[in-house]
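Hi R.,

Here's the input for the aspartic acid complex you asked about:
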Amino acid sequence: MIRLALHGGAGDLAVDQTDTTEQRAALRRIAEAGRAMLQAGASAVDAVEQVVALLEECPLFNAGVGAVLNRDGQPELDAAIMSGMDRACGAVTGIMRAKSPVRLARAVMERSPHVMFMGTGAEALNRELGLEEVTPDYFVTEARFHQLKRAHELGLIGLDHDDALKSGAETDSAAFGTVGAVARDAHGHLAAATSTGGLTNKHPGRIGDTPIIGAGTFADDRSAAVSCTGTGESFIRSGFGFEIHARMSYCGWTLERACCEGLEEVRRLGGRGGSIAIDHEGYLDLSFNSAAMFRAWVAADGIVRVAVGENDVD
Ligand code: ASP
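And here is the predicted structure with aspartic acid in place:
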């Protein structure tokens, strides 16, 4: 049985007062594309890479085009991908010139002898491997300038979906977040991928949980595939992704219990956010401790469902 889940970020958004029609439509369209790939026999790694690359191209989310800006007004993008079959993985940080951070992360995984590359080295590899290059302005949207200005005024470093960072009606419809996907393919293999611009107004050079294997991104066929969104520092400190694997493997916990306890630990460490996770049997867990997490998934009946708040499933 194939399964897929994707997220478009978490935050403290007033769900009832925000129009999320566009984000919901984008999540549905991209989930349907991923489902079609898996139904046609694509591997879990291919599916999560493609789903995340499509989310990066969509300006409604905090990854690729439309990513949030750092304190100096620059995009600095992070991404990672992991295969549950063999724990192969690749990660990149501080990207400004590689068109698709997640495709570069996959190239790191499969076409380099290493696991993680930063900024300039990552971009040199992108060029060497013939992947698409862009200039930093490719990623920058007007809405992000307003959001950064607002963050400067408020002195905040924040999650993208936090209401406090919205700068007015014209940007409300463009409330967006980090993106990620987890999948189980027809052979029972799992994979996870995550891509982000990080936190609005972050210090230049700051790296969050997204590209840290075992924190924001993790996959192992024996347990689960996990992609996180939220306060990256707390997800790193809790070792979130690996903790889910460890609780399931060593303690025999269910995915649901492991994710619930994992998020409780994130909360204890002062963080907010959520995770999408899938276990080796295809069971999904989409938990969050913020007001909202943009998410879509292929349910057991094969239908794509979309939700933002606690109980607003379409
Ligand atoms: N987890 C991301 C980071 O800390 C941010 C997010 O999920 O919105 O970089």
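One thing worth noting: Residues 9, 62, 159-160, 177-178, 196, 198-199, 208-210, 216, 229-230, 232, 273 surround aspartic acid (CB under 6 Å).

Cheers,
M.
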